Amino acid sequence: MIMLVCSIWSLIGVGIIILAIWGVVLNAYEKKINKKEEMKSIKNRLEKIEDKLEIIPDDNDEYYY
Q1: Sign of dihedral through CA atoms 43, 45, 47, 50?
Q2: Does the predicted model carry a pTM greater than 0.85?
Q3: Distance CA 9, CA 15 (A)
Q4: Cβ(57)–Cβ(64) under 8 Å?
Q5: Long-range pairs, 47-50, Cβ under 8 A, ≥24
Q6: CA-CA distance, 19 to 65, in Å (whole number)?
Q7: Which keywords does this chain's UniProt record carry (predicted)?
Q8: What are phi and psi of 54, to 5 degrees?
Q9: Distance, C-alpha 6 to centroid of its chain
Q10: What is the pLDDT along the chain (65 residues), one digit of tens a residue?
Q11: What is d(CA 45, CA 42) in angstroms, rounded to the nearest whole number?
């Protein structure tokens, strides 16, 4: 009887540990995905800013020569 109770508590403990590890891994994976998406967003915003700042020189403007 005592062995049965100990084995049940052991299984519960192992289950809690597995759930905790799974939660940590899942959280780290989500952070990695969010970081990639944030980098893509920053890159897209930077490209838009670069497009807005693009300067086309005039032929008569001596500053660019």
Answers
A1: negative
A2: no
A3: 10
A4: yes
A5: none
A6: 66
A7: Membrane, Transmembrane, Transmembrane helix
A8: -65, 125
A9: 41
A10: 889 999 999 999 999 999 999 999 999 999 999 999 999 999 999 888 888 887 665 565 555 54
A11: 5
As given in the structure block, the two tokens for residue 33 are 């995905």
Task: Please state, in angstroms and rounded to a whole number, the distance separating the CA atoms of residues 23 and 14.
Answer: 14
Helix residue ranges, H only, 1-65: 2-53
Rounded to whole angstroms, how far apart are CA atoms 22 and 15? 10
Residue type present at position 16: I
**Could you identify the residue written with the tokens 């049965």?**
4
